[in-house]
Amino acid sequence: MLVSLTEVLALAEKGGFAVGAFNTTNLECIRAVLGTAEKLGLPVIISHAQVREPVAPIETIGPVMVLSAKRSSVPVCVHLDHCTDLSYMEKALELGFTGVMYDGSLLNYGENVENTLKAVKMARARGAGVEAELGKLAHQEDGTGTGAGPVYTEPEDALRFVRDTGIDALAPSFGTSHGIYRSAPVLDLDRVAVIRDTVKLPLVMHGGSGVSPEDYRAAIKNGIRKINYFSYMSNAGVKAVRELLEREDVTYFHDVALAAQRAMAEDVEKAMRVFYGL
Length: 278
Known about the structure:
By secondary structure, this protein is an alpha/beta fold. The protein has a single domain (5-275), classed as TIM Barrel (Alpha-Beta Barrel), CATH 3.20.20. The protein has ten helices and eight strands. It has helices spanning 5-15, 27-40, 58-71, 86-95, 109-124, 155-165, 189-199, 213-221, 231-247, 253-275, and strands spanning 19-23, 44-49, 76-83, 99-102, 129-134, 169-172, 203-205, 224-229. An eight-stranded parallel sheet has the order 6-5-4-3-2-1-8-7, sandwiched between helices. The two termini are 22 Å apart.
């Protein structure tokens, strides 16, 4: 069933878990995520990031995501991830997305607030929830960045931002990074707890792939209610395809796609069992 971002986050808050938000760049990703969520009976978020537009145009993948959510036996939010262009956000909302994340983290504070307010107004008109980011990760969603380290979110800045924008969920920076980690991340989990107690909103972990189960559990205990997860799921599909091609003389592409889907589903289940405390 299709639900809003606020609805799925309310379920996470009530249950004391973090809902998984998985980028679904093709049908195999969608099936891997929703099939696993249905198997475990869990609410879930399927996301499309603006940076993936060359891989999966939103006009193509968006309607498939929305229809798949509507037909699912579990609550599913269809979410726009890391949107920097408000016209692109409007397109997602028109397609039926029920959550949006405006990313103004590279802008100055005033511009970030101004655009986030516009995003909130647009989303509210269509019953969608809004997530926004304050602070900066070492590597961005598209893989750019110096890798020198994150710009950590200060609790007082977070409170000001939440009050100035009226968002439904906040993605603070506390040491994670997008993509594949080159070394184990060092997370400031105490900062997460302070921000939670300060802003009193559901918090979001970006760059969720590759974090240890222990750190996931501590982050969730401290207020994380949504975890973005993609890179390691996708890489599991790549590894499965590589192993299949080394093992067999494959004729049909659908056999390759199915191997990737199955491997991604296995990786998603491992992640979900940690996120939801199973």
